Amino acid sequence: MVNTSDFDNNLVDKSKLWKVITASSVGTVIEWYDFYIFGSLTTILSLAFFPKDNPTAAFLSTLATFGAGFIARPFGGIVFGRLGDLVGRKYTFLVTLILMGGSTFAIAFIPGYKSIGLLAPAILLVLRILQGLALGGEYGGATTYVAEHAPDSERGKYTSYIQTTATLGFFTSIIVILSCQALLGKNAFSEWGWRIPFGLSGFLVIVSYFIRKNMQESPLFAKLKAEGTVSKNPLREAFASSQNIKLMALSMFGAIIGQGVVWHTGQFYAQIFIGKILNVDFVTTNVVIAFALLLGTPFFVIFGTLSDKIGRKKVMLTGMLLAAVCYYPLFRLMATIVSAEGTLINGTVELTYTGIFYLILICFSLVLFATMAYGPIAAFLVELFPTRIRYTSLSIPYHFANGVFGGCAPFVATWLGEATGSIFSGIFYPIFWAGTTFIIGALFLKETKGKRLID
């Protein structure tokens, strides 16, 4: 049991801490898997749920539906952030887990456009919005829960394990998709086999629920509850203080927007750019991204740990600056490699092993920028806000910035390419926001490293 009268983050039992991290991370990986399986199957879903007479419009419509989940995230942050500050971290992310798993599982059973017409994309949109609402509550809960167990001097290190979960969820979705396609064949997978990865969510959520069910409440929240000082209206309290509003705004424009566009561009838009714009075959595209993710994932922890030593701000802003400077030449280099090392066969480009290797290295560089921007940000956000309204205060700016600016980056970048006729024009969207966030953060962001969480 937690001694709520004299809790010290620096005296936490490390074996218990690892149990907390494992239980939180497993569930969060599954939630990210659920959320991003949609993005990994965008091309196939566009043919299943939208008219096939205009493939580009269908693809953009699917990306817009994908983006709707991101737009729903801030609303999930408001609803579940408030719930997490009122009743507890553990209870809230059990609810979000079930909501996410249920809506993802249901996508597996939606009839296609051929069967029910426009009702198909309408149902898909509703379920996608439910996914976004669930994720809006999950991240803040998992991050807060782990951070409130971690030692002050190693918070960047331990919260960075939660930061790996988004990329691991994306990686898992790619591996499941490639495995299903290999077992079923390309045609069967495109016709009906794509439903299996969504259906698998039901089993994964049940496993995660029982892992999380036995977790204890966060010690800092338990302390507030024992003292009777839990916020009665965390949402109103978060916006009642001009100082807290300033912190939410600064965290968003000085850190999270840049992190959001760098993460989604380096992983999702890179996948779209290679597969849809450069027309590389489906399997090769996903193999390239999967290897880049696998190589890059450990760096979330490396940079999270580094932020405990040199500060959150330096690490995060360096990742954003590198992205702003390097995106254009790296995306041009990808196009050059595909042109030089690719052969058009049956409507798609097949690459030599040399070409695949070079693309993996480039995509690894893109993921590396994301690990720098994303690895320390959980510790930074937790340290920024007071315990009694922490879940609410960090969830709102985080999910607004990641949902609206980051999550919509693939759609906006793809649309810009179509609108201008240049395959490189889309990349200026993330370049602009990464650069803008770097400037604001460099000028106004304060360091939070080492801050104690007890208010």
Automatic annotation (TrEMBL):
Family annotation (InterPro entries): MFS_dom, MFS_sugar_transport-like, MFS_trans_sf, Sugar_transporter_CS
Chief localization: membrane
Membrane-traversing stretches: 57-79, 91-110, 116-137, 158-180, 192-211, 245-263, 283-303, 315-335, 355-384, 396-417, 423-445
One GO molecular-function entry: transmembrane transporter activity
Pfam families given in the database record: Sugar_tr
Residue intervals of the Major facilitator superfamily (MFS) profile domain: 20-453
Topology class, membrane: Multi-pass membrane protein
Protein keywords: Cell membrane, Membrane, Sugar transport, Transmembrane, Transmembrane helix, Transport
Claim: Transmembrane helix is one of the keywords in the record: yes
Gene Ontology annotations for the cellular component aspect, listed alphabetically: plasma membrane
Subcellular location: Cell membrane
Name of protein: Sugar transporter
Naturally occurring in which organism (per UniProt): Pseudarcicella hirudinis
